[in-house]
Each structure stands twice: as C-alpha cells, then as structure tokens.
Amino acid sequence: MVLSIQQWLGLSISNDILMSRYADTGEQALLARLYDECGDDLYHFLLAMTSPDTAMDVAQKTWVTVIEKRHLYVASGRFESWLFTLGRHALIDEIRKQRRLTYDDALLSKQAAPETGVYQQSDCFRQALAALPFVQREAFCLQQEGFGLQEIATICHSNRETIKTRLRYARESLKSALEAAHD
C-alpha cells in the first residue's frame, strides 16, 4: 500500500475517507480502523436503547452489514451517520423479532439492582432514559453521541423540527424524572 502525504505526515484520515477506501478495496486494515474509531460509539448508542446482550448482538450485525454492503456506501455524509442508520435498522428489526418471543417475568424479577449511592444515581438515570418513548430516547442518545440535528433527522428518517421536538420532550422528561427521584 502506498502511503499518502497525509499518512506520511501522521495526519489523521477521516472515517469517510477510510470507508470510501474500504468500499473500493475491501482491505481489512481499513475496516479495523473504522471499527476502532466507531465501534464503541455505536455500541453505547445501542446500549442506551436496549439490553447489553441485544446491544452487542445488534452492533455485531451492524458491522457484518457494513462488510456485506460496503459497495452501497456513498460518501454524501458522515460515515458515522451511515453506520448509525444501519445500526438503527438492525435494532428495530431485533426489537420486532423479540416482541414475538415470550419472556419469563419471574426470571427478570430476580435481577437485583446494586445498592450503593453511585449505582442508584446512574440507575435512576437509566430508568428515566428507559422510560422515554423510543423516538425520544433515540434522538437524545444520538445527540449524546455527537450527531447534529440534521444528521439525527437523516438517521431517524424524520424532519429536523420533529427531532427538535423529540429532544425537547426528552430533556424535559429526564429532568422531571431526576428531580422527582431526588426529592
């Protein structure tokens, strides 16, 4: 592989360029760099939306989709937007699939929450986040991952004003739930 001047000088290459090169060549080293750059962010977004096991499964399925659909990548926006869109679609598919399954409520009720103060505070936030409607939680979590309004709108297939409203309601609900928990 020939080094570009950017690489030779040690300047970073954007994820968009990495993905474009990976789409053209299929070079595994490029995919590994993309995964190192974006894998944790994708997993944390999915984790905020679902259980740890489901988040891990969906994250893996998303990266498999990146591999299988690399030829469909068009560098018209940020790579992260494309990645999170794939992750969102995989998550929605998984949620639909899980709804067809039955759950053992007795098993779920046996899981105890940690008792220390730090865990209670973070548990309070997790519960408040989980209580948000899916679309509000999704918009909020994407914003926390650093996406702008237009990118969130693109990922969620909604318009910008709808996303602004979802974010406002999410913040208001979280604020109210956290204030109530500390009273």
Q: What brief labels describe this structure?
A:
mainly alpha; 183 residues
Mean of residue pLDDT values: 84
Number of helices: 10
Describe the largest sheet. Answer: none
Helix content percent band: over 70%
SSE succession: HHHHHHHHHH
General form: globular
Q: Which residues form runs of ≥5 with pLDDT under 50?
A: 102-119
Question: Rounded to an integer, what's the Rg over CA atoms?
Answer: 19 Å
Quaternary state of the chains: single chain
Beta strands, count: 0
What structural class is derived from the secondary structure elements? Answer: mainly alpha
| Separation, N- and C-terminal Cα atoms | 61 Å
Strand content: under 5%
Task: Briefly characterize the structure.
The chain is mainly alpha-helical and 183 residues long.
Task: Report what the structure shows.
This protein is mainly α. 75% of the residues lie in helices and 0% in strands. The protein has ten helices and no strands. The model is unreliable at 102-119 (pLDDT under 50).
